[in-house]
Amino acid sequence: MTLPRQRGLTEQAADAAIDTACRLLRLPSIRNEFNDIADRAVKDQMTYRGFLAELLMTECDDRARRRSERRIKAAGFPREKSLRAFDFDANPNIDAATVHTLASCEWIKKSQPLCLIGDSGTGKSHMLIALGTEAAMKGYRVRYTLATKLVNELVEAADEKQLNKTIARYGRVDLLCIDELGYMELDRHGAELLFQVLTEREEKNSVAIASNESFGGWTKTFTDPRLCAAIVDRLTFNGTIIETGTDSYRLASTRARAEENVAS
After folding, report:
1. Beta bridge partners of 142
2. Does residue 163 contact residue 157 with C-beta atoms inside 8 Å?
3. Can you give the pLDDT of all 264 residues of the chain as single tens digits?
4. Which residues are bridge partners to 243 per DSSP?
5. How far apart are CA 195 and CA 187, in angstroms?
6. What distance in Å separates the CA atoms of residue 130 and residue 115, rounded to the nearest whole number?
7. With the CA atoms of 58, 59, 62 and 63 taken in that order, what torsion angle do they form, in degrees rounded to the nearest 10?
8. Under 8 Å between Cβ of 132 and 177
9. Long-range pairs for 21-26 at CB < 8 Å and ≥24 separation?
10. Paired residues of 207 in beta bridges
């Protein structure tokens, strides 16, 4: 389709031509924002180059935002969590500077692991999801899963002769977030399959895990001592370990609200 071009277009005709061109070129942000940007350009006496730059940057910024949203959705996070919403004052065990350094995602660039270890309610899952979200916003491919869900998927894939394909799919993402590792005992077959995923990613792509068990207690999840040691080795080599402690923030918040209700 060729758009008619002529000098001296009326404002109405120019608007129609811009709308049509934006549809053809797939520039939805310029199409939606053009009138406001044009009015602002007149008010601020922008040059033609400045006006064009403003239009193009609007489209670029919106495309970047949509790509981030797609990556966050593809990660499969169960809920929204951000570092901004994390209450570092409520858990002095967690060093805010360390976490904000992790948010730069240099550790993902270097294919290093991250382990968040602590009792329930101490902020492990919040940080896992928040750091995964930061990674997705910075352009990394991220996948979130529960440990038991991942193992069940691997077992089913093995039964259906699709194991290599499934392991390769989990191996391709830049950051694999595994939550609730250590909550349930895994049989030897399931533990070996999980080990294959970790081996596929070793020193190639990052893994971040959240566990309610210290490493010494992982023998309850991975009952084979040698396999347990190998898994711990892969999840800690050149990595960062954050111990979130034993005091439940959620329990403390619940008690505080209950006391407030009684007092009132």
Report:
1. 175
2. yes
3. 555 555 567 888 888 888 888 888 888 888 888 888 988 888 889 898 988 998 999 999 899 899 999 999 999 999 999 999 998 888 888 999 999 999 999 999 999 999 999 988 889 999 999 999 999 999 999 999 999 999 999 999 999 999 999 999 999 999 999 999 977 788 889 999 999 999 989 889 999 999 998 888 888 888 888 999 999 999 999 999 999 987 766 555 555 555 555 555
4. 117
5. 12
6. 14
7. -150
8. yes
9. none
10. 176
Distance CA 78, CA 23 (A): 35
Task: Collect all residues with Cβ–Cβ distance below 8 Å to 255 and sequence separation of at least 6.
Answer: none
- The Cα 66–Cα 28 span in angstroms is 12
Give the position of tokens 């495309």. 63
pTM of the prediction? 0.79
Rounded-to-integer distance, Cα 35 and Cα 79, Å: 36
Q: Which residues contact 85 (CB under 8 A, 6 or more apart)?
A: 126, 130
Pair of tokens at residue 15: 């608007």
What tokens appear for 168 in the block?
């390769």
Distance CA 178, CA 197 (A): 11
